[in-house]
Give the backbone structure.
Amino acid sequence: MSTGRPRATSRETIAEAACELFLERGYVDTTVAEITRRAGVSRSSFFNYFGSKADVLWGGFDERLDAAVAALGAAAPVRTALQGLVAGFAPDSLALAITNAEAMGIAGDLDDERALRTGRLARAASDRLLAEGALRLEADVRAGAAASAVLAAVWSWASGPGRRDLCEVLDEALAAASVA
């Protein structure tokens, strides 16, 4: 007989508790101890699932980003890897944070974290394009536009009225960036 929370729900329970607190108190003023108290889990349980408070917001996206970077490294076409990154993406803690960035006091932090992920995706896409024979300048520009389109699509999807299919929003963003 288990006395702890079921593993399948602990991650979601912690994320939900954290987001509630971020909305109530703000991101900066919320501690891991408060999150674990609200979620009814231990500090070690928190760190089993998340390396930091930022991981509560970015963890799901980062798993998808890791998969996209790996796909690009394994010779997947750039567009295919980008579509794989957003396919099936559901509203999560990141979408909630984007929608409520001002209330959570996290708009600047989201911008910083967004830039890091855009850079990481752009590097991987540029490497893929170079391997396909593109010149460095072309590869860097096309990859930067593509990576920016992905994050812009996520932001638009999360904060737009009603939720459209994120793959459609990405296609629009890629078209706006003239990325094939």
